[in-house]
């Protein structure tokens, strides 16, 4: 526990676009160690004159993926670090990182469930690490993901989530699209509210273990809504970002 | 890691800010103009008629204030720079509150008291050596920018310890427990640094 977290130089193995504003960066780590799903890495950029910029990014991959981590990163307008990663970085580049970091907003199979995950936008990233871990470990813990995004094209990991939701392991994925919905859309089309939470979380019983990640307003709405429908506050864990966080 | 490492192609967007302000941003931090919200669970709503603030532990006699009593304590304005471990810093934040020095005038400290744990309405704790909250270095704030402190920012009252990373500035604080021994708080038990000095970049355990 007292081992200092050392900076290490990762190599970008691959960059994959997920949505128009989101890319996944797969990093090869010389000093890889298994993370707990929900944890993050700090990433540091350094210019020739020593100027530095540092940000934290959630891990999207499961700890079962050895030797690598995937950081799925939204490009923030005017984002100094996300802008560089999206526009300048290419596979083969080397980047300083340290981690994994964080010990509260984490879920592993032994923590059990049922699991209620609520995501807004790129807040799905740490929850995706939990779902990938759940799948890789063969867990049948009942789980639901309620994922709010602006539009269909903004649903990060949609194909993989649809696949995981159909694999018979007890995961159900529910989407809500707050700005525009494609024709024939069968998911929700509004912001998260207590009625939606009661419908989605209700079947998980009185005390689901809840993880909520997204912009502050969504997290507030979801956390207060869950408390309102009777979920004990001690079962609700949150992680917020924005409006800053570039 | 190698101190001469350079990220290929990174120039950086040095913020257009005065040299004086640059001096006020600790290493690895960047300045923000808004006020991000970070917390581990739902935002508690605290009814003011049930709120109280206590100083307990290694003191001769525990002291508690109700909300009305707390508002009658000598308050002052504080303008301070704050630094969050998630790398944002905000300069010249304006608060109104009561200095911890003022609060401690109401108790007789046990000479063995050397550490403090701030505790909160929802169970969050954070720990500090006692000197870190003395001599004008910490206060309990109930106004931000001239308005009552919003619940999302820790209202009705939060501890503010501006010279340490902002997780030490416990939101929804309801008391200070003086102790003879150090005991890790919530984030300090979860991989974050026990002390959290932004100027030494003490972000995580072992930094």
Helices, strands, pairings?
The complex is a heterodimer of chains A (246) and B (207).
Chain A: E1 8-19, E2 22-28, E3 40-46, E4 52-58, E5 68-74, H1 80-87, E6 94-101, E7 115-120, H2 124-136, E8 143-149, H3 158-165, E9 171-177, H4 194-201, E10 209-215, H5 216-228, E11 236-241
Parallel strand pairs in A: 7-8, 7-10, 8-9, 10-11
Antiparallel strand pairs in A: 1-2, 1-6, 2-5, 3-4, 3-6
Helix pairs in contact in A: 4-5
Chain B: H1 19-22, E1 30-31, E2 52-57, E3 63-66, H2 67-71, E4 76-83, E5 88-99, H3 100-104, E6 115-120, E7 125-129, E8 139-144, E9 147-148, E10 158-160, E11 173-179
Parallel strand pairs in B: 1-5, 2-11
Antiparallel strand pairs in B: 2-3, 4-5, 5-8, 6-7, 6-11, 8-9, 8-10
Characterization of this structure:
The complex is a heterodimer of chains A (246) and B (207). Chain A folds into two domains: 8-101, Elongation Factor Tu (Ef-tu), domain 3 (Beta Barrel), CATH 2.40.30.10; 109-241, Nucleotide-binding domain of ferredoxin-NADP reductase (FNR) module (Rossmann fold). Chain A contains five helices and eleven strands. Chain A has helices at 80-87, 124-136, 158-165, 194-201, 216-228; strands at residues 8-19, 22-28, 40-46, 52-58, 68-74, 94-101, 115-120, 143-149, 171-177, 209-215, 236-241. The mean pLDDT of chain A is 94. With 207 residues, chain B is mainly beta. Chain B has a single domain (52-200), classed as Oxidoreductase, molybdopterin-binding domain (Sulfite Oxidase, Chain A, domain 2). In chain B, the strands form two sheets. In chain B, strands 1, 4, 5, 8, 9 and 10 form a six-stranded mixed β-sheet that branches. A five-stranded mixed β-sheet of chain B has the order 3-2-11-6-7. In chain B, strand 2 and strand 3 form a beta hairpin.
């Amino acid at each position: 526990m007292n081992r200092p977290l050392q900076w290490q130089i990762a190599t970008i193995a691959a960059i994959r676009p997920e949505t128009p504003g989101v890319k996944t960066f797969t990093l090869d780590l010389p000093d890889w160690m298994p993370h707990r799903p929900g944890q993050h890495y700090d990433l540091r950029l350094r210019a020739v004159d020593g100027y530095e910029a540092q940000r934290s990014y959630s891990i999207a991959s499961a700890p079962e993926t050895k030797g690598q981590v995937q950081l799925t990163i939204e490009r923030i307008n005017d984002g100094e670090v996300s802008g560089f990663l999206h526009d300048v970085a290419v596979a083969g580049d080397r980047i300083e990182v340290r981690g994994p970091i964080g010990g509260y907003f984490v879920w592993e199979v032994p923590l059990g469930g049922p699991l209620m995950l609520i995501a807004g936008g790129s807040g799905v990233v740490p929850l995706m690490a939990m779902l990938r871990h759940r799948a890789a470990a063969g867990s049948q813990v009942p789980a639901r993901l309620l994922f709010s995004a602006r539009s269909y094209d903004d649903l990060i990991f949609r194909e993989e989530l649809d696949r995981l939701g159909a694999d018979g392991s007890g995961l159900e994925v529910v989407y809500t699209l707050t700005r525009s919905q494609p024709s024939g859309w069968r998911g929700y089309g509004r912001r998260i509210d207590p009625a939606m939470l009661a419908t989605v979380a209700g079947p998980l019983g009185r005390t689901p273990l809840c993880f909520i990640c997204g912009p502050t307003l969504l997290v507030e709405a979801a956390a207060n809504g869950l408390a309102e429908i009777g979920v004990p506050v001690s079962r609700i864990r949150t992680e917020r970002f924005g409006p800053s966080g570039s | 890691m190698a101190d001469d490492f350079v990220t290929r192609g990174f120039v950086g967007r040095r913020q257009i800010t005065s040299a004086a302000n640059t001096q006020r941003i600790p290493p690895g931090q960047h300045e923000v103009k808004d006020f991000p919200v970070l917390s581990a669970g739902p935002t508690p709503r605290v009814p003011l008629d049930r709120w109280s603030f206590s100083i307990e532990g290694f003191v001769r006699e525990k002291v508690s204030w109700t909300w009305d009593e707390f508002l009658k304590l000598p308050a002052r304005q504080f303008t301070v720079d704050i630094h969050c471990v998630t790398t944002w810093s905000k300069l010249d934040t304006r608060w109104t509150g009561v200095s911890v020095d003022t609060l401690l005038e109401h108790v007789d400290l046990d000479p063995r008291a050397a550490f403090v744990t701030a505790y909160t309405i929802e169970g969050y704790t954070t720990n500090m050596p006692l000197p870190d909250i003395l001599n004008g270095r910490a206060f309990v704030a109930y106004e931000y920018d001239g308005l009552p402190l919003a619940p999302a920012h820790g209202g009705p009252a939060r501890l503010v310890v501006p010279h340490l990373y902002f997780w030490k500035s416990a939101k929804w604080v309801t008391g200070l427990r003086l102790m003879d021994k150090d005991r890790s708080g919530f984030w300090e038990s979860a991989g974050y640094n026990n002390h959290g000095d932004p100027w030494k970049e003490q972000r995580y355990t072992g930094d």
